[in-house]
């Protein structure tokens, strides 16, 4: 499984009692999450605060991190030192304190007693250290700066001046308040995201990964550039069960990248295609990345509405990528795979048709019945496990059910520390009023210009994304920047999806692009060269968010005529963009024709009658001579080669 591959680089390899303790923490996280998602405590007549559940969940997660993740490069890799066991013990103290006594604590949150602020200080230190071990220093430094501001905001000049909080009050607030460490981000991570990670694990453990790859091979492998198209299809399908771009690259890339290189694609191009295809899994419904579930809670709408709004931009993303790959294959005359290299489509479907059932149920419950995402996820997990009983491979995997629970817990570790750290950030911003200050300042700098505000936000998102995962970037900007968009009358969902997109694009945008790094390593290609190629393949994702800020029809908002026209014109525009970027249609294109194709694509991606008509006219003028050349080449091959304008 993917998590096993990632674990080899990030975690210790333990044995004996430490290994048993680590497994216990990871399995306990998943079991606890399942019980809470099913609301078992309510059936037993017990009342449980969210904070009680999150305190216990965080205790298990921190215990697993300190046991398994080394403190530094010089820390031992085969055992946990004594100081890590001290951190594990402290983690259980701060977690079980909340779990056992929060009902009483909630009645006296206004009083910063010594036990609250001392344990609050410990909790902040433990979360920050766990975040450093798993994600590096960028988010840690950001948290540190914001906590310093929350305590000493009276030292800052101008608009940043505020009355600072005492440490006792600040530590208590960040530790125990619903807007702090145990707030909404961690709650979404420990419930909805946990359920869908479990869903992905249940699919993968019962053979879905192999089925998705075989299905992509059987349907796309025979066409020109077939291996690259297999990469796109399999990565987009696998994206429904994996919210991690890097995990997606590792899982699919070890199969698809060598296939693409073998078919004739340059190593850096093969790596770029896989990186872009895998990163798109975060924006592809029905199951998007973790940030999408958090977005739904921020917006106070069902997750299905978020996924529906993200559908057309995600289709454009993959449509443009697919078109570029097809044109690249035609440009370099790359053939598909032979029949002997392909699995039988009929046999593949007969072997794995059961995997379509839970996906259908998931889509139906989310988009038609509007169920809560956690409920939909648990139902689909149950269906996957039930259907697996009818397949020999599935029954064999179910015998390792504990392994599936452990893998789910391991996949949750990074999500847990990211959302906990985000809770600290949100808590400081809330208690200090910094969010209002920054939103006001951004609106002032933009001078009321929505485009300028969007451009500044895109740049900030890409910069922050150099050191933070998509979820962390989204959480931070959703609190700091999204309110500035609402001041300019932008629909909330458009503003949040804009931030989400550019946070996601940091995975493929140099100089720091984790998905591209992973793909380049597998392809044995230069990192930067692969990164620049990835930017080109993902180009539509840099453009479309600016358009849907101004045109909600691209988010399927509006009457059906507006939505249909916007969808049709944007799909044609994404193809025109691919032609301009690759520089090939039926033959190589001149620089001027490439520029004109790019201009046509921008007018078509911008919904509106005038822009659509202009874009179509430009395309007709460009495509007509190419079609004429192609027809002449078939009739008079030698004459076509010397036609003027070729």
Automatic annotation (TrEMBL):
Residues in TRAP C4-dicarboxylate transport system permease DctM subunit domain copies: 123-556
Source organism, top-level taxon: Bacteria
Keywords (A to Z) from UniProt: Membrane, Transmembrane, Transmembrane helix
Protein name (Swiss-Prot/TrEMBL): TRAP transporter permease
Transmembrane intervals: 20-38, 50-70, 82-103, 109-127, 134-152, 172-200, 307-327, 348-367, 373-390, 411-434, 440-465, 472-492, 498-520, 532-551, 563-586, 595-624
Keyword Transmembrane (UniProt): yes
């Amino acid at each position: 499984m993917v998590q096993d591959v990632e674990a080899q680089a990030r975690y210790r390899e333990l044995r004996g009692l430490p290994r048993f303790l680590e497994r216990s923490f990871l399995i306990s996280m998943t079991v606890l999450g399942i019980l809470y998602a099913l609301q078992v405590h309510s059936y037993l007549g017990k009342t449980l605060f969210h904070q009680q559940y999150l305190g216990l969940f965080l205790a298990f997660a921190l215990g697993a991190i300190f046991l398994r993740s080394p403190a530094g490069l010089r820390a031992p890799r085969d055992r946990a030192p004594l100081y890590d066991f001290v951190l594990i013990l402290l983690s259980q103290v701060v977690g079980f304190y909340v779990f056992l006594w929060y009902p009483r604590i909630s009645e006296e949150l206004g009083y910063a007693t010594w036990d609250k602020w001392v344990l609050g200080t410990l909790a902040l230190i433990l979360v920050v250290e766990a975040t450093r071990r798993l994600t590096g220093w960028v988010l840690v430094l950001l948290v540190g700066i914001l906590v310093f501001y929350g305590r000493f905001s009276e030292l800052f000049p101008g608009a940043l001046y505020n009355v600072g909080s005492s440490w006792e009050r600040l530590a208590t607030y960040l530790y125990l308040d619903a807007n702090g460490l145990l707030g909404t981000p961690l709650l979404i991570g420990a419930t909805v995201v946990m359920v869908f990670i479990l869903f992905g694990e249940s699919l993968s453990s019962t053979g879905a990964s192999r089925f998705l790859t075989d299905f992509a091979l059987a349907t796309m492998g025979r066409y020109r550039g077939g291996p690259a198209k297999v990469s796109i299809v399999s990565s987009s399908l696998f994206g429904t069960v994996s919210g991690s771009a890097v995990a997606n690259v590792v899982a699919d890339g070890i199969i698809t990248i060598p296939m693409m290189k073998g078919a004739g694609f340059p190593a850096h191009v093969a790596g770029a295609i896989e990186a872009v295809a895998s990163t798109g899994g975060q924006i592809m419904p029905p199951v998007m990345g973790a940030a999408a579930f958090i977005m739904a809670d921020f917006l106070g709408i069902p997750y299905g509405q978020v996924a529906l709004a993200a559908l057309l931009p995600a289709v454009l993303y993959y449509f443009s990528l697919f078109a570029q790959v097809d044109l690249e294959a035609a440009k370099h005359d790359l053939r598909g795979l032979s029949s002997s290299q392909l699995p039988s489509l009929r046999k593949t479907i007969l072997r794995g048709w059961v995997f379509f059932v839970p996906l259908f149920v998931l889509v139906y419950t989310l988009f038609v019945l509007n169920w809560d995402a956690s409920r939909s996820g648990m139902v689909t997990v149950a269906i996957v496990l039930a259907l697996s009983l009818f397949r020999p491979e599935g029954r064999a995997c179910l015998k390792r059910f504990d392994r599936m629970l452990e893998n789910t817990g391991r996949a949750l570790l990074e999500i847990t520390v990211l959302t906990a750290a985000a809770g600290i950030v949100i808590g400081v911003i809330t208690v200090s009023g910094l969010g209002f200050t920054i939103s006001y300042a951004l609106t002032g700098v933009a001078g009321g210009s929505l485009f300028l505000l969007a451009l500044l936000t895109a740049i900030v998102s890409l910069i922050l994304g150099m050191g933070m995962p998509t979820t962390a970037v989204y959480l931070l900007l959703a609190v700091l920047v999204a309110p500035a968009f609402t001041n300019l009358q932008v629909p909330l969902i458009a503003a949040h999806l804009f931030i989400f997109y550019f946070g996601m694009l940091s995975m493929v945008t140099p100089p720091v692009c984790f998905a591209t790094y992973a793909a380049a390593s597998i392809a044995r290609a230069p990192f930067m060269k692969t990164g620049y190629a990835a930017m080109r393949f993902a180009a539509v994702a840099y453009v479309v968010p600016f358009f849907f800020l101004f045109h909600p029809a691209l988010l399927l908002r509006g009457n059906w005529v507006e939505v249909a026209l916007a969808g049709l014109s944007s799909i044609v525009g994404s193809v025109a963009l691919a032609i301009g970027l690759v520089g090939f249609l039926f033959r190589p294109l001149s620089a001027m024709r490439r520029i004109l194709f790019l201009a046509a694509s921008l007018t078509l991606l911008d919904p509106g009658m005038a822009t659509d008509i202009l874009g179509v006219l430009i395309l007709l003028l460009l495509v007509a001579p190419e079609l004429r050349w192609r027809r002449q080449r078939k009739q008079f091959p030698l004459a076509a080669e010397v036609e003027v304008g070729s």
